[in-house]
Specification:
heterodimer; A: 257 residues; mainly alpha; B: 265 residues; two-stranded antiparallel sheet; 14 helices
Chain lengths: 257, 265
């Protein structure tokens, strides 16, 4: 019940800015069109001949799908609101609530994820569907699981970035490094097309769980086995988040928060 | 006029000095910016590595486009970072504090937050541009004389981005919230400009050569330099576009400032 209240609170806070977000959605769609234009400028036969089993039409829809997925599994509130709480000092009261801190933040930000899904991903999907085409999932069940794992991975990674604010004053550069992952998480370039060596590394990183694996499952290029990397990373990231939280709590008590 | 210049450099030096206090931060910020932009090219580079060309342009040509755009944008980020998030000056009323001082508000804004930490972006853009130039000169597609022109282009390109940024920020005097707008007027066009213009539909090509003339930052002059079309005039038009755009943006800014004062905020 508590988690439902937290989530709906976050949801309703985002709701107030939905018109600004709608305009921003257009910009996001615009970026998608840029990558689509790039793929349209590559010769179709070369794409089909490359590893991974993609075609030019598929890649157009791959970009469209991932642009919407970005809002569910990449662009979340910076640090999940943790650095802001540290700056204002509210972190002290938040950490001493009867609800454990990490699950509390997760619960609250699930509201953000749900908001992004309804008010960002869906409208953008509609725009894509009526212009360049938007793919239907090959297997709705595994596709949904893929997206859920992507969202969970994103929540954990964002949480780790946010909790880092306990140790470093400037988390801006942590955020920029995270944005760098954009290039190797498969957002507009499927990881199969990376050179040997780079590909294996990229596919093993948790960033690939955010974009590449859910996309390939959605397109039917991978079946249920596509969920394995996500299922491996989930407990690892969760453990890291819990460890970071208790470390942060100790640090706060030492500083007399 | 020279008084204003001396003031400018004094303020810039002060801004840099205050940032140097945080040495660790300085190093890491530079590194982070360098990494984020370097990794951005990994995806494009991988695509070109595997498919060879985009609309006939190969990796060296695209690297040059990418590098020039990165450097120009990097210069803007170093010197004009305060303008990128200008809306808070209007919304939180900080602009009033600028207006009561005896110096032009723009001068204050462009010296408030000179951030050498963002040099990382310029450095990285330089590396990628170098890779492109090296490959192109190597196969004779680019004359070494172009190396004299490129630094000019970096500054002119930065001026064009700066003009668009200034005009966008000036809109804050009318509509207050403009930070989101920069995604449409700066970030998206810049991203689009790192690829050859011909991959886009005609109306986008028109847009990027008129209202948002970012095509003159890299595509138009580089296209001529590497022998893919255009005329020698294409080397001069970016300068004309930059001057015209800056003048236009500055008059929009002044109009906005007058309006701000007259509403008595």
């Amino acid at each position: 019940m508590v988690y439902y209240l937290l989530a709906s609170g976050a949801f309703r806070r985002h709701l107030q800015y939905r018109w600004a977000h709608m305009i921003n959605n257009l910009a996001s769609v615009g970026f998608g069109y840029i990558f689509i234009a790039v793929w349209m400028a590559v010769e179709p036969e070369k794409i089909t001949a490359a590893p991974g089993g993609y075609s030019q039409e598929m890649l157009v829809q791959y970009v469209a799908f991932n642009q919407t997925l970005l809002w569910v599994a990449f662009f979340l509130p910076i640090g999940l609101g943790v650095p802001a709480a540290i700056r204002t000092g509210h972190i002290a009261t938040e950490m001493h609530k009867p609800v454990p801190y990490f699950p509390m933040v997760l619960g609250r930000e699930s509201g953000s994820v749900l908001y992004h899904l309804i008010f960002r991903a869906v409208p953008m999907a509609i725009v894509f569907a009526s212009t360049t085409g938007y793919p239907a999932p090959h297997n709705p069940w595994s596709a949904t699981m893929g997206v859920l794992l992507a969202a969970y991975t994103a929540l954990c990674l964002h949480y780790l970035m946010g909790i880092a604010a306990f140790w470093t004053k400037e988390i801006r550069w942590v955020w920029w490094l995270f944005q760098a992952s954009f290039a190797i998480n498969g957002t507009w370039l499927p990881l199969d097309l990376l050179p040997d060596g780079v590909r294996e590394v990229a596919m093993a990183l948790p960033f690939a769980v955010q974009m590449y694996y859910p996309a390939t499952i959605w397109f039917g290029l991978r079946g249920w086995e596509g969920l394995l990397p996500g299922l491996v990373w989930a407990p690892i990231l969760t453990l890291l988040c819990l460890l970071a939280t208790s470390g942060a709590r100790r640090r706060m008590e030492v500083q007399g928060g | 006029m020279s008084g204003a210049w001396k003031l400018y450099w004094a303020l810039v030096a002060g801004s840099i000095r205050s940032r140097r206090q945080y040495k660790f931060d300085f190093l890491f910020t530079n590194l982070a910016y360098g990494i984020i932009f370097a990794v951005e090219f990994v995806a494009v580079g991988a695509l070109l590595y595997r498919f060879g060309v985009i609309a006939g342009w190969d990796i060296y040509e695209i690297a040059l486009l990418f590098g020039v755009s990165s450097i120009a944008m990097g210069l803007v980020r170093v010197f004009l970072s305060e303008l990128m998030y200008f809306e808070r000056y209007i919304i939180q009323g900080d602009f009033d504090a600028l207006m009561v001082r005896p110096w032009p508000t723009l001068l204050q804004l462009v010296t408030a937050n000179v951030d050498p930490g963002r040099l990382g972006a310029i450095l990285q853009g330089g590396i990628i541009a170098y890779v492109g130039v090296d490959g192109l000169i190597g196969r004779g597609a680019l004359s070494p004389w172009a190396l004299l022109y490129l630094p000019v282009l970096f500054v002119v390109g930065a001026a064009i981005f700066a003009a668009v940024l200034l005009a966008t920020s000036a809109l804050a005097f009318w509509v207050q919230r403009v930070d989101e707008l920069t995604t449409f007027t700066i970030h998206a066009p810049q991203a689009a400009g790192t690829y050859p213009l011909l991959i886009y539909p005609r109306w986008i090509q028109h847009l990027l050569t008129t209202v948002l003339p970012v095509a003159y930052v890299n595509y138009i002059p580089v296209r001529y330099l590497i022998g893919r079309g255009g005329t020698a005039y294409d080397l001069a038009t970016p300068l004309l576009v930059a001057v015209a755009a800056l003048m236009l943006a500055h008059s929009v800014w002044r109009a906005g400032e007058r309006r701000y004062q007259s509403t008595g905020s």
